[in-house]
Task: inverse folding
């Protein structure tokens, strides 16, 4: 190519020669260019080289049926890109390019009216209709881009505390994340309100920490003479009864881990019966130790007592239930109690035994966590609350009852980092914009309303995965009203085995929900389908007229470096040259000869 650069052009004839060279580049070898990975190692050199006579050495391929204009655009030098990006906004079309039958036009209208003749003269041509683009050019972080979603409360079996709250095991046994199909934690529904989208119950947590007491104690489980099995206070084997009315047995909590059931039958007023654990011996730091209990009270006719006994027989007692309890958990709710022994014992010289006793009546409890040798509290995460000044603040959860709702699994204490939660509940949504770009197609055409510049037609396929480890509660399909009074059509359907494209639209069975979307306030979401089928794709089809400014925001996801383009063929900086706006782009670049007289202003914009 010759040495001319758009920033230095001094006449439209020179510009046309420049465009003709670009066209020759496009025709040279259209298969030699990848928009995603740039030109091959030879192409960029070819794009700017010339022979000793100043003529292009690229050659031409006159037999090419369809020049690759994308390749030509890739070949534009840096100055051209700067010029088009910064020069275009200040262009004014010369009077001799405005059709005679037009008397009053906006700048945009004048550019569009003159574009066809200019672009044809330049050898570029116009684009009357655009092929469908995938969603990679769309920016779903801006408020105007339609982003339909499937909203649900998820229940995930065997969710790791340390991993993402959206990870689960699929039916092939592989660890996957819902984020791969566009899943994310639900965004805050109402600004200023507490947002705790992750929930679980303490008895759903399988954690070595719950079973570790007493640390360092082993026993001969197999009977071979070797004590090589860890003792756990959550194994009924290691407990004895203090009266005939008491019993202890193993039970399996919701987590699937270890637990013991304590129960009595026939304990009258004025009497007691309990169970005793003696495989513990602590001789230092006793006042720093914590009594930590997780249990679900099944019944408690009198009171229950946890008694920590030292070597002298003295006890430190925590009373559960009754008229003056230290701990009064709700019946049937998994609850956690924690207290440092120094706060409830005046003196204790050792820890030699632990008893659980029913007093003045029968009791039954399922114990899923028990510890007596830690020197710090368990933490089950942080939650947002509203303080007395109606401000949001976070608080740490140490003694939960029932469901625990927290901001994130990342706030759960490190002591549970190797734990699993069987039944983690997540307020989640699967967004079209967060899924694969290939599951979205859009195109731009003439607007239905002349007050707007383009019609955006978009079809989004939202995958709703299925797995044994994944279940949904109150699943629904939602469309947020991001373009109030601009929707021409919003339609939805579900049960599709594969993503659907714009070419498939005429064959789809969709329901019109336009009035539902228009009927909610801007920024609010309309529920357009309840219980879409799981294991398939839900489809949302949208037609909306948009302004040029909105479209630039919507397509701003395509800009990557100098050459734009993140995969969608109609977005970003080049969209006015290659999409339905090519008619305007043709006018912009065709007016270079005229604008060269403004080189000083453009150069100042570019800092030259």
Result:
């Amino acid at each position: 190519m010759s040495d001319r650069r758009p920033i230095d052009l001094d006449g439209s004839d020179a510009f046309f020669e420049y465009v003709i060279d670009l066209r020759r580049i496009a025709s040279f070898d259209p298969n030699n260019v990848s928009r995603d990975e740039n030109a091959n190692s030879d192409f960029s050199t070819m794009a700017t080289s010339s022979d000793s006579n100043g003529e292009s050495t690229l050659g031409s391929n006159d037999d090419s049926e369809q020049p690759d204009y994308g390749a030509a655009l890739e070949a534009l030098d840096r100055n051209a890109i700067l010029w088009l990006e910064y020069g275009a906004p200040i262009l004014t079309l010369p009077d001799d390019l405005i059709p005679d039958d037009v008397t009053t036009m906006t700048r945009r209208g004048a550019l569009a009216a003159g574009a066809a003749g200019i672009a044809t003269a330049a050898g570029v041509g116009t684009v009357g209709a655009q092929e469908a683009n995938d969603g990679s050019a769309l920016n779903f972080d801006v408020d105007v881009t339609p982003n339909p979603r499937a909203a649900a409360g998820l229940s995930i079996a065997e969710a790791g505390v340390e991993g993402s709250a959206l990870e689960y095991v699929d039916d092939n046994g592989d660890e996957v994340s819902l984020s791969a199909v566009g899943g994310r934690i639900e965004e805050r529904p109402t600004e200023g309100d507490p947002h705790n989208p992750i929930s679980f119950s303490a008895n759903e947590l399988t954690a070595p920490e719950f079973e570790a007491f007493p640390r360092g104690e082993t026993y001969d489980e197999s009977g071979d003479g070797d004590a090589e099995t860890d003792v756990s206070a959550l194994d009924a084997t290691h407990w004895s009864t203090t009266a005939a009315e008491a019993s202890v047995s193993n039970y399996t909590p919701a987590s699937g881990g270890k637990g013991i059931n304590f129960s009595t039958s026939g304990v009258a007023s004025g009497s007691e019966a309990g169970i005793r654990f003696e495989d513990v011996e602590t001789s230092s730091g006793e006042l720093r130790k914590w009594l930590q209990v997780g249990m679900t009270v099944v019944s408690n006719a009198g009171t229950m007592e946890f008694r920590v006994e030292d070597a002298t027989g003295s006890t430190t007692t925590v009373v559960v239930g009754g008229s003056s309890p230290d701990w009064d958990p709700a019946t049937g709710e998994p609850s956690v109690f924690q207290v440092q022994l120094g706060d409830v014992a005046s003196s204790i010289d050792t820890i030699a035994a632990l008893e659980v006793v029913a007093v003045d009546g029968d009791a039954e409890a399922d114990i899923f966590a028990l510890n007596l040798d830690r020197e710090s509290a368990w933490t089950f995460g942080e939650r947002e609350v509203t303080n007395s000044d109606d401000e949001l603040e976070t608080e740490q959860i140490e003694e939960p009852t029932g469901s625990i709702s927290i901001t994130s699994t990342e706030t759960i204490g490190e002591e549970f980092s190797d734990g699993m939660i069987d039944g983690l509940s997540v307020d989640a949504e699967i967004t079209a914009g967060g899924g694969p770009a290939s599951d979205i197609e859009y195109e731009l055409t003439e607007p239905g309303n002349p007050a707007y510049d383009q019609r955006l037609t978009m079809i989004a396929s939202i995958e709703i995965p299925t797995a044994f480890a994944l279940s949904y509660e109150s699943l629904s399909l939602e469309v947020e009203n991001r373009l109030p009074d601009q929707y021409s059509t919003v339609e939805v359907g579900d049960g599709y085995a594969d993503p659907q494209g714009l070419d498939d639209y005429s064959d789809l069975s969709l329901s019109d929900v336009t009035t539902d979307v228009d009927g909610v306030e801007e920024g609010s979401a309309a529920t357009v389908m309840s219980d879409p089928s799981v294991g398939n794709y839900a489809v949302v089809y949208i037609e909306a007229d948009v302004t040029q400014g909105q479209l630039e925001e919507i397509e701003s996801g395509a800009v990557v470096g100098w050459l734009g383009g993140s995969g969608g063929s109609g977005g970003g900086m080049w969209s006015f040259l290659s999409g339905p706006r090519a008619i305007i782009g043709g006018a912009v670049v065709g007016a270079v000869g005229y604008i060269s007289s403004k080189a000083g202003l453009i150069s100042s914009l570019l800092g030259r």
